[in-house]
RNA sequence: GGUCUCGUAGUAUAGCGGUUAGUACAUCGGGUUUUCAUCCCGACAAUGCGGGUUCGACUCCCGCCGAGAUCACCA
């Protein structure tokens, strides 16, 4: 019988999920789903000082938004609960007692100040601080309320395999009597995650490379507890856009929620993040969640850090907006646009907004662009004569020529029987002939008159959506404005 | 300082003993009757350095250099 694959994402509720950390959720999710296994969400809230109200909800929301469902964890429950470490005190105590009775863990009743003094001494002498060199001769193997419990280490060279980094090893220098249980009775990460992963049957531990240097200590605990080692998957860091540091809040990279608010599609975020430091060997760039689940492979995870590149994220976003429109139609894309329209669109009908979306979608990088790009579809733009005067093509026409050209165009368009893109284009072409202007000149003039925006979709499409009345009214308004000057 | 890890264009990556070192983003140029965008075409641009091994090295080995991680009653 094949062992079931179980992975987990175990964040601390200390704020929003950091962009760089989302990968530590996506990768284990893909590993589990690919094998038909389980993905667990566990909240590591043993540090009461850093706990942030609402952080858990934010984490859950982010995972859900990205399309990840956890099989066990908060909200959904499961057979290995509770899924908040703060509620698992008794479990950790039980495991700590195993070590205590085996003579592998002891109570640390050295005053903190004394340890601190020793630590400073070591720093001054530039030797590594190791508690084991400082521990009392006679150890007390018992559980004492209000005192930390330390692991009794057995330093030696240890070797292990990392699914990403390969065969690794480290000497005894880094192994120490690390704290298992803090004086508040809650476990440290170092102990808690080992206990939880064992209890929950986790087969693959996926986490950042920063834990690599603690591995020898973890290995010692697995050994002392008689636990089998799970597979270790170390993920390289996501680097900040500049410098060589790992991505952090001050690097200008927004949180996942921040990008979501800008109107980045979740598919794009997932796609980008997953392909940052992973590649299936083909030249494919765009992947759906289903494709990622079937194609993902741990062996293909890069082993050097990857720099976060917002520009590429935005490219993915644009690609996905087009992909959804092209493959699933306006309605599918429209569903995503709620909250991204400009204020003026408030009273507009759904149908009208869909029409606007249909002609503007291929210009969007994020849905939030709707706000700045579609205003003139919902209210008459303010006339800015300088936009006309400064345009490099319209500039070539005299004021009189502008007025006459617009008048002619309005006249021709006014005669159109059925107001549709094709007929409008025919009308525009006729206006071109009759005015004798170059396309660049006349079309620029008309385009600006209609929108007074830096850019807009094709003229005929814009007018079709705007409607005959509005289009002609706007052109006439400009004619009046020019003539009065 | 100890320990550990990493090193292909600006960025993300492919290639894993013989390639014109491929692709994508970015940048620059061109095309699609106006703009912006899409789309298409083109250009620029990389194996950190030094030694080996080999007929041949981006690929294997060693050294150096550079970068990062970690050394908490944080995770």
Protein model, in words:
There is one protein chain. This protein has 485 residues and is mainly alpha-helical. It folds into four domains: 6-77 and 189-237, HUPs (Rossmann fold, 3-Layer(aba) Sandwich); 98-181, Glutamyl-tRNA Synthetase, Domain 3 (Glutamyl-tRNA Synthetase, domain 3, Alpha-Beta Complex), CATH 3.90.800.10; 256-376, Glutamyl-trna Synthetase, Domain 2 (Glutamyl-tRNA Synthetase, domain 2), CATH 1.10.1160.10; 385-484, Arc Repressor Mutant, subunit A (Orthogonal Bundle). The chain is built from 18 helices and eleven strands. It has helices at 19-34, 55-65, 89-101, 112-125, 189-199, 215-225, 256-262, 266-275, 289-295, 310-334, 350-360, 369-373, 385-390, 399-414, 421-435, 439-451, 459-466, 468-484, and strands at 6-9, 38-41, 105-107, 149-151, 158-162, 166-170, 179-181, 204-208, 231-235, 238-239, 306-307. The strands form five sheets. A three-stranded antiparallel beta sheet has the order 3-4-7. A two-stranded parallel sheet has the order 1-2. It has a two-stranded antiparallel ribbon with strand order 5-6. The termini are far apart. The mean pLDDT is 94. It binds one RNA strand of 75 nucleotides through helix 4, strand 6, helix 5, strand 11 and helix 10.
What percent of residues are in strands?
5-15%
Output the CATH topology of the largest domain. Answer: Rossmann fold
Alpha carbon gyration radius: 32 Å
User: Can you tell me the number of structural domains?
Assistant: 4
Helix content: 40-55%
Secondary-structure class: mainly alpha
CATH superfamily of the largest domain: HUPs
On the 0 to 100 scale, the average pLDDT is 94
Strand order of the largest sheet: 3-4-7
Total strand segments: 11
């Amino acid at each position: 019988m094949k062992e079931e694959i179980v992975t987990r994402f175990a964040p601390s509720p200390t704020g929003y999920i950091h962009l760089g950390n989302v990968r530590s959720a996506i990768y284990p999710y893909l590993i589990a789903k690919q094998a038909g296994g389980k993905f667990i969400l566990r909240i590591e809230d043993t540090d009461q000082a850093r706990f942030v109200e609402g952080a858990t909800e934010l984490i859950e929301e982010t995972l859900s938004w990205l399309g990840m469902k956890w099989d066990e964890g908060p909200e959904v429950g499961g057979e290995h609960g509770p899924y908040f470490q703060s509620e698992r005190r008794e479990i950790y105590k039980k495991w700590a007692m195993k070590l205590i009775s085996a003579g592998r863990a002891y109570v640390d009743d050295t005053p903190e100040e004394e340890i601190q003094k020793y630590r400073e001494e070591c720093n001054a002498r530039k030797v590594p601080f190791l508690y084991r060199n400082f521990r009392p001769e006679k150890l007390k193997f018992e559980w004492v309320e209000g005192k930390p419990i330390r692991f009794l280490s057995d330093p030696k060279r240890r070797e292990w395999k990392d699914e990403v980094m390969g065969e690794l090893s480290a000497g005894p220098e880094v192994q120490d009597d690390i704290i298992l249980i803090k004086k508040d009775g809650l476990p440290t990460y170092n102990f808690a995650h080992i206990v939880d992963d064992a209890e929950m049957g986790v087969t693959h531990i996926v986490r950042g490379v920063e834990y690599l240097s603690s591995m020898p200590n973890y290995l010692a605990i697995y050994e002392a507890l008689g636990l089998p080692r799970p597979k270790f998957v170390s993920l390289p860091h996501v680097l900040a856009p500049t410098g060589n540091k790992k991505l952090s809040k001050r690097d200008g990279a927004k949180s996942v929620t921040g990008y979501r608010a800008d109107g980045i599609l979740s598919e794009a975020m997932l796609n980008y993040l997953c392909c940052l430091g992973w590649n299936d060997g083909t030249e494919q760039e765009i992947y759906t969640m289903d494709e990622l689940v079937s194609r993902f492979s741990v062996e293909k995870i890069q082993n050097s850090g990857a720099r976060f590149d917002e520009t590429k994220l935005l490219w993915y976003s644009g690609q996905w907006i087009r992909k959804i429109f092209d493959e699933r139609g306006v309605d599918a894309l429209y569903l995503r646009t709620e909250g991204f329209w400009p204020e003026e669109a408030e009273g507009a009908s759904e149908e009208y907004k869909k029409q606007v979306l249909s002609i503007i979608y291929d210009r969007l990088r994020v849905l939030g662009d709707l706000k700045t790009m579609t205003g003139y579809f919902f209210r008459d733009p303010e006339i800015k004569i300088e936009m006309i005067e400064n345009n490099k093509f319209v500039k070539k026409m005299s004021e009189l020529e502008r007025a006459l050209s617009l008048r002619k165009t309005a006249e021709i368009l006014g005669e159109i029987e059925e107001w549709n893109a094709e007929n409008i284009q025919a009308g525009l072409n006729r206006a071109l002939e009759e005015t004798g202007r170059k396309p660049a000149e006349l079309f620029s003039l008309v385009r600006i008159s209609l929108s007074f925006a830096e850019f807009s979709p094709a003229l005929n499409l814009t007018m079709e959506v705007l409607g005959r009345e509005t289009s002609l009214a706007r052109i006439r308004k400009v004619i009046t404005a020019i003539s009065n000057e």
